[in-house]
């Protein structure tokens, strides 16, 4: 939501002659440090914001400067509209509606058609095709807790189904891929943690408030680490699951094997996630090599079969 805040701060500066960092921080419910970073970003965009020191000081746009709507290029405005529109589908709220309206007001009439064409060339919808409908209420509650610096309590399902009760100071919402996460300071672990919203239940906001901490940016890029852990195995798949396998490896890894099948060099890590991934393709996927992965696949398949050999409902 930083784009929304930057546009709103710019509008405030254009509307007011001078305003202090603390007043802006209170207005947007962020820290003064965040406001200083936002002002730096606005200045870097070429808008001359001046800081006046002392009593009655604050930020102001240089008096001789007039915001020309053409300060934003067609690409700038298209990117702003695409970004805000994609977020509005997942994070509902008046602030995004207002931000969209403000950005649209900056579009010169003679460029409206071109910008609309650019925006419509890319459609971004971050909502899942299917899944839990409980994410949206969680997002709204977490947004409120972030704005008011109030504690969140919830039950959390971790690895292997372990359920724990957590109390956290919310720091930020994170969207990675198609999944939402809450980064917060977990009081039971005395450290920052990243919680996947789909694994949270019984989410509630407490009355207690807290002083926001400087949270480290969450580590979200594991490319280098995965490359050191991954190996390539060979699988043989039926063409009917080719589209699903393409979600996990490149087309260049496919080699035709007869009229109906392909052999695929498949990136693989020996953990439950990747074994379950292969099992998810059912009888239309066979691990060819290496032998030990093939043997482990057979063991897991037999374990699944054993579940269905017994009476229903027994473990």
What labels describe this entry?
3 domains; globular; WCX_dom; single chain; DNA-binding transcription factor activity; 315 residues; SH3 type barrels; transcription regulation; 4-stranded antiparallel sheet; 5-stranded antiparallel sheet; Arc Repressor Mutant, subunit A
Give an overview of the whole structure.
- The protein is of the alpha+beta class and 315 residues long.
- The chain has three domains: 119 residues, Winged helix-like DNA-binding domain superfamily/Winged helix DNA-binding domain (Arc Repressor Mutant, subunit A); 75 residues, SH3 type barrels (Roll); 86 residues, no CATH class.
- The strands form three sheets. A five-stranded antiparallel sheet has the order 6-5-4-3-7. Strands 9-10-8-11 form a four-stranded antiparallel sheet.
- A hairpin with a 3-residue loop joins strand 9 and strand 10.
- Helix 2 crosses helix 3.
- The mean pLDDT is 82.
- InterPro entries: CBASS_pafABC_assoc_protein, DeoR_HTH, HTH_11, PafC-like, WCX_dom, WH-like_DNA-bd_sf, WH_DNA-bd_sf, WYL_dom.
- Keywords: Transcription, Transcription regulation.
- One of its GO terms (molecular function) is DNA-binding transcription factor activity.
- It holds the Pfam family WYL.
């Amino acid at each position: 939501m930083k784009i929304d805040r930057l546009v709103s701060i710019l509008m405030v500066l254009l509307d007011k002659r001078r305003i202090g960092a603390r007043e802006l921080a209170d207005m947007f419910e962020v820290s003064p440090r965040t406001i200083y970073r936002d002002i730096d970003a606005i200045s870097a965009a070429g808008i001359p914001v001046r800081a006046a020191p002392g009593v009655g000081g604050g930020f102001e746009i240089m008096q001789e400067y007039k915001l020309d709507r053409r300060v934003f290029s067609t690409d700038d405005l298209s990117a702003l509209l695409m970004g805000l529109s994609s977020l509005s589908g997942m994070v509902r709220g008046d602030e995004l509606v207002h931000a969209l309206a403000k950005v649209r007001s900056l579009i010169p009439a003679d460029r409206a058609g071109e910008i609309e064409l650019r925006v419509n060339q890319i459609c971004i919808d971050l909502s899942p095709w299917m899944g839990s409908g409980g994410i949206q209420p969680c997002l709204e509650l977490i947004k409120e807790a972030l704005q008011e610096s109030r504690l969140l309590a919830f039950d959390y399902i971790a690895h292997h189904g372990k359920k724990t009760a957590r109390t956290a100071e919310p720091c930020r919402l994170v969207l990675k891929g198609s999944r939402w996460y809450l980064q917060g300071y977990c009081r039971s672990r005395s450290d920052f943690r990243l919680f996947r919203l789909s694994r949270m239940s019984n989410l509630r906001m407490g009355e207690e408030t807290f002083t926001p901490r400087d949270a480290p940016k969450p580590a979200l890029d594991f490319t280098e680490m995965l490359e050191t852990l991954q190996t390539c195995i060979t699988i043989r798949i039926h063409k009917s699951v080719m589209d699903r396998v393409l979600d996990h490896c490149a087309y260049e890894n496919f080699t035709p094997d007869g009229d109906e099948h392909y052999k695929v060099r498949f990136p693989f890590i020996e953990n439950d996630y990747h074994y379950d991934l292969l099992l998810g393709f059912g009888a239309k996927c066979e691990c060819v090599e290496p032998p030990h992965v093939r043997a482990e696949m057979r063991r897991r398949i037999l374990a699944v079969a054993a579940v269905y050999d017994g009476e229903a409902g027994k473990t």
